[in-house]
Amino acid sequence: MMFRDARREDVPTVVALLAADALGATRETAQGPLPEGYYRAFEAIERDPNNRLVVVEDGGVVLGCLQLTYIPGLSYQGGLRMLIEGVRVVESRRGEGVGRRMIQWAIEEARARGCRLVQLTTNKARTDAKRFYERLGFTASHEGMKLDLGTPPA
């Protein structure tokens, strides 16, 4: 398996991965031409040195994706933290350790960048994902909250 920064041509594949479950299907549009917002977001991620959209591939086939965001802050004595989001593995390869290797790779990237903490969120409906992250050493130490601001303009 090879980890690399996503390229513009990967955007449809990444969006399809994000849409490939019951929750993602309610908020992503993976059919037909993609809304331009996906490409604007990709370009913003690509320009930002504190963000990385990463794909993992095997034999030229994308198996999964994740986004890494580095957050500077005053807590932890000014320690940098990494936020992992948008973790997905193609359904046909789940259960083979791909996700575990992705998270372990991300943790090593955090260490290499000098992060003090790695954090992530997972929807409460994703009970399998919660168990997966707990097996990797993550703890549900905080209660996350979100406020949906509606659909952005096209």
From TrEMBL:
Domain N-acetyltransferase residue range list: 1-154
Gene3D superfamilies found in the cross-reference section: 3.40.630.30
CDD domains: NAT_SF
PROSITE patterns, per database record: GNAT
Keywords in alphabetical order: Acyltransferase, Transferase
Protein name, per record: GNAT family N-acetyltransferase
